[in-house]
Design brief:
D-Maltodextrin-Binding Protein, domain 2; 18 strands; 3-stranded antiparallel sheet; 431 residues; 5-stranded mixed sheet; 2 domains; alpha+beta; 44% helix
Length: 431
């Protein structure tokens, strides 16, 4: 019996040692897909190799910028992850919904001066009512990409698209783009020059381009019926009407269906010659279309002499409510959102960092990436609202109605106020 007891005691000691030596991994969820999920996995591997105290397991889950239904279900059921990547502008909304852990105590202990090291707009997006609920990760700006090889082959003069000549006007862009349009015998588009709502041609893109203001934080109001926002929607309405809404929708469903792999992106395949998208497209082109010739310039301006516009978004790192390993999770997100992690992601993905020192380091932005670094100086950002995701979805629904030509801009945007403002009122005052 004594030998059995000693054996049992030894086995318990071995089990304890094994448990200590192999801590439970920090569970990290992301809705990113290739190639960006590949970049994140490289970063996770680098972090894991750097030490043994914390090990992270990355899992891809369904979702999008505003769809976090799987996360919310898991949090409420007590089965959520330890770390979640969140589109930063929705931080306030998810914090208000009780889905996130307040990071303020962790930050005060790790680095009380942390906020001063980040771009102000990015830190503001990560905050709500005086507390910090996420750590800013990347940022990005948007520009107009054009396939110089395809446009030239079609005999189109692209001088006006050269960034050295400043922003192109909407009218000049339309003149160039429509020359590239082609249809088959049935009248269906087989290639198009430009579709305003494609890729990053969002409501914010065109609202900002026309000088619009989406919210008044001091007054606690969303302002989608601002004249500039309405003008941006009118631009999309008119362009869609000229091309034919149903013909455009058929083209997009054919050449850019849901979950379209990056190598089949219409800009890469040449089905679309001009597109508004972000700096990350540089890395995508290098990976999937290394021989393509393309240029980058400013988002079109309404009329000659107008100032160029762009807007900056980005993601953040959060610890969901109910996380089992908050200390280890914070160590991980502090690294990912810190200098080492952001530098690595900038080099892999061609995004921009939110850490001031890195954002000012010209060596991180070779070639065309330098253009996007420069546009960060005049970039707008989405209003940090506790209904940010709801506002985005309502604006997107209005945009779809406008580009389908089933609603006029002013009418569609008035409905956005009706849907969003009552929900925003629950959180007033905002400041």
């Amino acid at each position: 019996m004594k030998k059995i007891a000693l054996f049992a005691s030894a086995m318990m000691m071995l089990l304890a040692v094994a448990t200590f030596a192999a801590p439970k991994p920090v569970l990290f969820w992301t809705n990113f897909t290739p190639p960006f999920s590949d970049y994140l996995q490289k970063m996770v591997d680098t972090y894991n190799a750097s030490q043994t105290a914390v090990q992270v397991k990355m899992v891809q889950v369904p979702g999008s910028e505003t769809d976090v239904s799987k996360l919310m279900t898991a949090v409420r059921g007590g089965t959520g992850p330890d770390v979640y990547m969140l589109d930063r502008f929705t931080t306030a909304e998810r914090a208000a919904a009780g889905v996130l852990t307040d990071l303020t105590p962790f930050i005060k202990k790790a680095d009380p001066d942390m906020a001063s090291k980040y771009l102000p707009f990015a830190w503001a997006e990560s905050s709500f009512r005086g507390k910090t609920w996420s750590l800013p990760f990347d940022t990005d700006t948007r520009g107009l990409y054009y396939r110089s090889d395809l446009l030239k082959a079609a005999g189109i003069d692209i001088t006006a698209l050269d960034v050295k000549n400043g922003p192109i006007t909407v009218d000049k862009l339309k003149e160039i783009a429509f020359k590239y349009n082609k249809t088959d015998s049935s009248g269906a588009y087989t290639q198009v020059g430009f579709i305003p709502q494609f890729n990053q041609g969002w409501h914010y893109t065109w609202g900002f381009a026309y000088g619009g203001k989406f919210a008044d934080l001091k007054a606690g109001k969303v302002t989608p019926t601002d004249p500039g926002v309405v003008a941006g929607f009118q631009f999309m309405y008119d362009w869609s009407k000229a091309m034919g809404p149903q013909k455009v929708n058929t083209f997009l469903s054919t050449y850019n269906p849901p979950n379209n792999p990056p190598q089949q992106d219409p800009f890469i395949t040449g089905k679309v010659a001009i597109v508004v998208t972000g700096d990350w497209q540089i890395a995508t082109m290098a990976q999937y279309a290394p021989d393509a010739k393309y240029g980058v310039t400013y988002i079109p301006i309404p009329k000659a002499g107008d100032k160029p516009s762009t807007w900056a978004g980005g993601w953040s790192w959060t610890i969901p409510k109910g996380a089992k390993q908050t200390a280890s999770a914070f160590d991980f997100i502090k690294w990912m959102a810190g200098p080492d992690g952001q530098k690595m992601y900038t080099q892999l993905s061609s995004h921009l960092p939110t850490i001031k020192a890195l954002a000012e380091d010209a060596s991180l932005f070779p070639g065309q990436h330098a253009f996007f670094q420069q546009t960060l100086s005049f970039a707008s950002s989405r209003p940090a609202l506790p209904v940010g995701g709801l506002f985005w979805d309502a604006l997107t629904a209005a945009q779809n109605d406008v580009t389908d030509n089933v609603a006029l801009p002013a009418d569609a945007l008035a409905k956005v106020i009706d849907k969003v403002q009552p929900q925003l009122n629950k959180f007033l005052p905002l400041q």
